[in-house]
Design a protein that fits this description.
Elements: H1 2-13, H2 27-37, H3 45-66, H4 68-80, H5 87-93, E1 99-108, E2 121-141, E3 146-157, E4 168-172, H6 174-182, H7 188-200, E5 206-210, H8 211-217, H9 222-227, H10 232-235, E6 260-263, E7 275-278, E8 312-316, E9 321-333, E10 336-342, E11 371-372, E12 382-385, H11 394-398, H12 407-410, E13 413-417, E14 422-436, E15 451-463, H13 466-502, H14 512-515, H15 524-528, H16 531-536, H17 542-552, H18 577-591, H19 599-604, E16 611-612, H20 618-626, E17 631-641, E18 649-652, E19 659-660, H21 664-677, E20 683-688, H22 691-696, H23 698-703, E21 713-721, H24 733-740, E22 747-753, H25 767-779, E23 786-791, H26 792-795, H27 799-808, E24 815-819, H28 828-838, E25 843-846, H29 849-855
Parallel strand pairs: 16-17, 17-19, 17-20, 20-21, 21-22, 22-23, 23-24, 24-25
Antiparallel strand pairs: 1-2, 1-15, 2-3, 3-6, 4-5, 6-7, 8-9, 9-10, 10-13, 11-12, 12-14, 13-14, 14-15, 17-18
Length: 866
């Protein structure tokens, strides 16, 4: 009894076994135990199948994460392609978006005193019409992946208009102006006959008609009857008509925009809605060269992944030509980012300022800001401009009174969601003008000035509604976050498989609750281990691989698991080869995207780096981080955060701007956070526009140039005056180098101020400029990495001195960054020779895509200097 009582007392005194703690950190282990460690001997077949399926899910999720952009693009294209069964087809055939067509007429109030007085114009309207549009005669052409169609447009007067169709309008007699313009090359007798006919029929300089007749209804004119009996050479081939109106015959017509043929998007590598032919023409018959090309979007489907560096190209039937709309601005509509592309000074310019536009002149180029469409209007004196001669020659405004150009009211733009290519806000505006000039043989026009007479302007505004915006926000969220979700799923599945494989039991039986071990305290090394550590970890053997995956998943390795870390020597062999190899493969599968696997390739060919430019606001920063570019280039100035006061601080903006929604500190913080969470690290090039901005940025730069922050950081400034005297003042070189040397991890990007234009192609870097740079580097004892940004059009003319610069600075691991602006004149063959002489391993390339393509640089596997 005493012995038994003693044993019972000892049992009561012995501490009870600690109950296993079930916390969120043990969930993954429990799943793994359920899959592989909870049975005696070999796992049942269903569990092995489950393990295999989980591994396949991990591989599939990883593949989806790596290829997410391509997967999304393919899915999107399948929805928007033009085929009878696609989702986009129904809305394309008969758009459900409400359309309004607004017309503003210019009423001539002092016509009786012309030409002694400058015409005074009074803007009336808008005369508003509801528009219904549908595509008819739709025919698919599978042989070339296209569809042809005509567009039927119907207009209905809207009583909310600012005016009625009974309003009386006085304007220039367009029929008379056209007849006189057509006769300018006739003989003397023919022109005198026309002059007498105009007097006989009682035609004057102007007409006064109700708005309904002037717009759609039309009115009779004896000159139209006379024109029916004239040969086509006299009428310019215009079809005979019985009435005249600005839009007469267009309502319910299927011929307004002609026969259009566009791509369907069903063929690989093509987008829907890209124009191929117009009215059976592959090129425009009335223009030559570049102006004759029919290219770009048909106006309904835009390219995807738009950037600010390339124009938005659209073919517009109403303008009878292709228009290149330049990037102007960016912002947000309903929570969606947009890039705004607009017609600028160049779009309606003449050859005096834009030589490439000379082929649109069809003869002598006159005032800038006009587009000559007379060739596609049967030789009538028709010219288009932006409303109120916005961006036009000042002489155009001097010839009339009453016009007040306003970019907010009169610009022509497309605001497009850049990744999806969906227009969010469109304002189509243009003004119709008639050219008149004195004619000594026709009495009516004997004393008129040479001028451009405004007749009317139109506006068509389309903005997507909230229902569409909501759907687009969902689509954009899928694009932005889908890859990350797949990556997280891949890590989760891979961690489960790793844990399950590692926890395969030995031959003896172990109770399940013994497998859920209490966690040991983390040492300092484990606390510091995170995704950034795994990113920079070089996995040299199985032990390192397994530890990396284990720590990433917060796993521990119980003593009874067969896949504990081991090192193979010539004396030992692994206990469980399959388990170790699977762990190694999973380690690489999870961590491979986090390591620069292409570093070696890029080091052989620096031109492979890609760039995002002017990342000076939050919208651009988000887009750049979501893109595939390698380097983010941004400008730093002193200024204020939009809407906030206080002393100036470093912000991201390009002069002359002094406000931004993005500070330098927030910019760098966002890049660091992105690099900590993503596989491919993005570098930063900070372009300082003043020494004051650089001085104020020192503390911020110091925080992000520590050795443990590993992403590339470039400090850029133009510190010396360069070829072709530029208006930009160089940044103080001595102060810049003194401060920059305090950040030894940073790459110094040191350049010259330059200026280059299409009319100035002979500039080059000279030995004085190169010598000044080398002396600065020597005086300041710069021993960190340096790259020299050189302008492509100038560097191509400067091979000997550029080679000297790089040779003398080789100790600084120097390189050159060849850059160019859109439209820079470049001798491509000379530039290619320079790059291959310097070597691809010392040349960064930051030029427009067409220039990069034309260089035809060798692939990394070839000898760069061949």
């Amino acid at each position: 009894m005493n012995s038994g009582s003693a044993r019972q007392r000892r049992r009561r005194q012995q501490p009870k076994p600690a109950q296993p703690r079930v916390s969120h950190k043990n969930v993954l282990k429990s799943v793994a135990i359920g899959l592989g460690c909870g049975m005696r001997g070999r796992a049942p077949l269903w569990r092995r199948l489950g393990l295999g399926a989980t591994a396949l899910f991990a591989a599939a999720a990883l593949a989806a994460a790596l290829c997410w952009n391509s997967i999304f693009e393919s899915a999107l294209n399948s929805q928007i392609k033009l085929s009878p069964h696609s989702r986009a087809y129904k809305d394309w055939v008969a758009p459900s978006v409400p359309l309004l067509f607004e017309v503003y007429l210019f009423n001539w109030t002092n016509s009786e005193r012309f030409p002694e007085e400058v015409p005074n114009l009074q803007q009336l309207g808008p005369y508003r019409f509801k528009e219904r549009r549908k595509h008819v005669n739709v025919t698919f052409h599978p042989s070339n992946g296209s569809v042809s169609y005509r567009t039927q447009r119907s207009w209905y007067f809207d009583e909310t208009s600012n005016g009625t169709l009974q309003d009386n309008i006085t304007t220039l007699d367009i029929i008379v102006a056209s007849a006189i313009y057509r006769s300018r090359y006739w003989g003397y007798l023919q022109q005198k006959t026309l002059s007498m006919a105009l007097a006989m029929f009682g035609h004057g300089m102007t007409i006064s008609r109700p708005a309904r007749q002037l717009l759609f209804e039309g009115f009779d004119d004896p000159l139209l009857d006379m024109a029916k009996n004239l040969p086509a050479s006299a009428t310019g081939g215009a079809p005979p008509v019985d009435r005249f109106g600005l839009f007469y015959g267009r309502n319910n017509s299927m011929d307004t925009e002609g026969l259009v043929e566009v791509t369907t998007g069903e063929r690989s590598g093509t987008l829907p809605g890209q124009i191929l032919r117009w009215d059976h023409h592959e090129t425009l018959p009335w223009y030559e060269g570049e102006c004759a090309k029919i290219t770009g979007s048909g106006g309904e489907f835009m390219p995807h992944n738009l950037t600010e560096d390339e124009p938005l190209t659209i073919f517009m039937p109403d303008l009878c030509r292709t228009v290149h709309m330049e990037y102007e601005d960016s912002g947000h509509i309903g929570g969606l980012p947009y890039n705004k592309y607009a017609m600028t000074e160049i779009s309606f310019d003449n050859s005096s300022r834009s030589p490439l536009n000379s082929c649109f002149c069809n003869g002598e180029c006159g005032w800038s800001g006009l587009m000559n469409v007379s060739a596609c209007r049967f030789g009538s004196p028709s010219f288009l401009s932006l409303p109120h001669f916005l961006h036009g020659d000042p002489a155009l405004l001097d010839s009339v009174r009453g016009l007040e150009p306003n970019p907010d009211l009169h610009s022509f733009y497309f605001a497009v969601e850049p990744r999806l290519g969906v227009p969010l806000d469109v304002a189509g505006r243009f003004q119709f003008n008639v050219f008149i000039e004195p004619n000594p043989y026709i009495a009516l026009y004997e004393k008129v000035p040479k001028m451009m007479f405004p007749i009317f302007w139109v506006e068509q505004r389309v903005t997507v509604d909230e229902a569409v915006l909501s759907e687009l926000r969902t689509v954009r969220a899928i694009l932005d976050w889908g890859g990350m979700v797949c990556a997280c799923a891949a890590i989760l599945f891979a961690s489960i498989v790793t844990a399950a494989t590692c926890c395969a039991k030995k031959s003896h039986y172990t109770k399940p609750h013994d497998m859920i071990m209490s966690e040991k305290p983390k040492d300092e090394a484990e606390i510091k281990l995170n995704s950034m550590y795994v990113t920079n970890l070089l996995i040299r053997d199985n032990q390192t691989a397994i530890e990396a995956i284990g720590r990433l998943s917060n796993l521990r390795y119980p003593e009874h698991c067969l896949c504990r870390p081991w090192r193979a020597t010539h004396h030992t062999a692994p206990h469980h080869t399959t388990g170790n190899m699977l762990a190694v493969l999973l380690a690489f599968a999870v961590s491979a995207p986090l390591v620069y696997t292409a570093d070696e390739e890029i080091m052989k060919n620096l031109s492979l780096l890609t760039w995002a430019h002017a990342v000076n606001n939050k919208t651009y920063l988000e887009a750049a981080l979501a893109s595939e570019v390698s380097m983010l280039e941004a400008d730093v100035v002193l200024g204020h955060v939009t809407g906030k006061d206080g002393p100036p601080i470093p912000i991201m903006a390009h002069p002359p701007a002094t406000t931004s929604d993005l500070t330098l500190a927030d910019f760098l913080t966002a890049v660091v956070q992105y690099n900590n969470l993503n596989a491919k690290q993005k570098g930063v090039k900070l372009d300082f526009k003043s020494i004051e901005a650089f001085e104020k940025s020192q503390e911020i730069i110091a925080r992000f140039s520590k050795p443990e922050v590993t992403f590339p950081l470039w400090l850029n400034a133009d510190i010396l005056p360069g070829p072709i005297k530029a208006s930009t003042k160089p940044v103080d070189p001595d102060k810049f180098l003194e401060l920059a040397s305090k950040h030894p991890r940073a790459v110094l990007s040191l350049g010259w101020t330059t200026e280059l234009s299409r009319n100035n192609t002979e500039g080059e870097y000279n030995r004085d400029q190169i010598g000044a740079m080398l002396r600065l580097l020597n005086d300041h004892r710069i021993n960190q990495t340096v790259t020299f940004p050189v302008r492509a059009g100038l560097a191509s003319n400067s091979q000997p001195v550029v080679l000297d610069l790089l040779r003398e600075s080789k100790a600084m691991n120097s390189s050159m960054t060849v850059w160019a602006s859109e439209g820079d004149p470049i001798e491509v063959e000379r530039l290619r020779a320079l790059i291959l002489t310097v070597g691809l391993e010392r040349t960064y390339l930051d030029v427009p895509a067409d220039v990069a393509t034309s260089l035809k640089l060798p692939t990394p596997g070839l000898n760069a200097k061949q």
